[in-house]
Amino acid sequence: MFKGLQPISYGGREVWPLIEGGKGVSATNHASSGAWAAAGGIGTVSAVNADSYDACGQPIPQVYPQKSREERHRQLIKYAIDGAVEQVRRAYDIASGKGAININVLWEMGGAQDVLHGVLEKTRGMVTGVTCGAGMPYKLSEIAAQYQVNYLPIVSSARAFNALWKRAYSKVAELLAAVVYEDPWLAGGHNGLSNAEDPLAPQDPYPRVKALRDTMRAGGIPDSTPIVMAGGVWRLDEWAHWIDNPELGTIAFQFGTRPLLTQESPIPQAWKDRLTTLNDGDVLLHRFSPTGFYSSAVKNDFLKNLEARSERQIAFSLEHAGDHQFQLDVGVKGKNFWVTRNDLLRAREWYGLGFTEALKTPDNTLVFVTADERKTIRKDQADCMGCLSHCSFSSWKDHDDYSTGYLADPRSFCIQKTLQDIAHGGDVENNLMFAGHAAYRFKTDPFYSNGFVPTVKQLVDRILTGA
After folding, report:
1. Less CB within 10 Å around the terminal CB: N or C of the chain?
2. Cα–Cα distance between 53 and 45 in angstroms, integer?
3. How far apart are alpha carbons 261 and 442 in whole angstroms?
4. Is the Cβ–Cβ distance between 274 and 267 less than 8 Å?
5. Any idea what DSSP says for residue 448?
6. Residue 432 Cα distances to 106, 302, 414, angstroms
7. Intervals of CATH 3.20.20.70 along the chain
8. pLDDT tens sequence across 19-76
9. 8-277+444-464 has which fold?
10. CA-based Rg of the chain, rounded to a whole angstrom?
11. pTM for this one?
12. CA–CA gap between residue 317 and residue 5 (Å, rounded)
């Protein structure tokens, strides 16, 4: 046992302060989460469009034949509730009364509140707590109170937590089980990097977590309420100065990337194999997500294509004015766009390379894509099923008039499509592959030498030694 590490009280029992990160669409499920809880930790079922199963035990494809986005959105919510309930029940059975089972949702996912109500209503007594980030989930505490489950907000700064606490959480303080600090420079998936923070200048998490604890203390939250360090956590011996540290109070640790490479992990073998090839720097913090948030994913062909697409971008004017003295004569088929001379020459060069279609963005720019890319982009936008509360790619919004009021952005992508595809056997080079920035360590950690893939129990036992 690693020196100083002690169990914490959670859900009426003692558990290890080790939490499985609840990763997106089908990247954590009942098998991994139930096993993590059975090993004495807190397993986390992803309630983001989780899989349901047919009579043969095969995942039910999530298809949307409905004609309108509103109808497809209602279908998506039904899939999400049915899938998450199935995953929780199976994880609870696997845990066999050990550890605890949480669910994880993204506040900015489409119909998040409806999904939470639907899942918690049907899993009473099985879910110990709800982790929730990707936005400012003010109503999380109110929903948790209705079902008497714990809630664990995910934040990336003391300032964000303070806003949540003052507006809502202080009214339901007794169910605040922990606060998850997700490091915006190190964690995989969507990150809470603010506009005031430099994506290229990572900050030391210690002072940021200390500031979070100070904010919690100012609100009267006891030091026994853990702060969960998430993002960049690999070995506990690298965090020894955080454990049993009176400045920080009780600390727990979330493992998101490391459990991807276990026998129970539901991700396809090709994804697992790709993880073992990564080098330091192969995970990119980018802003192509249709959520508008920064996010971290493996820099594969999918992300490289998005980078290249945005680089084939020029500003335009609808009038002959200023530096925009030249009428664009490629990619726009008779429409009047005025550009600079240099941009005209660039556009002609791209056109000659096969990028023959110019698509407008919400920022009064044009991006150049191939005819096939244009066809795919337009089809994906038309097929939108409303998986986000606000989607820049399709201009969908999950309430009021169902429109963000902005032009759909062709520089982004359909996140539901690509995450479902990679989780169910799709090409790992041509889909979004979320990962934390420590993923390169699979290649160098001797625990994984000679192709060894541990069970979740073996991984938890290894983590408990500090290694």
Report:
1. N
2. 16
3. 8
4. no
5. G
6. 17, 6, 10
7. 8-277+444-464
8. 999 887 888 999 999 999 999 999 999 999 899 999 999 999 999 999 999 999 999 9
9. TIM Barrel (3.20.20)
10. 23
11. 0.94
12. 61
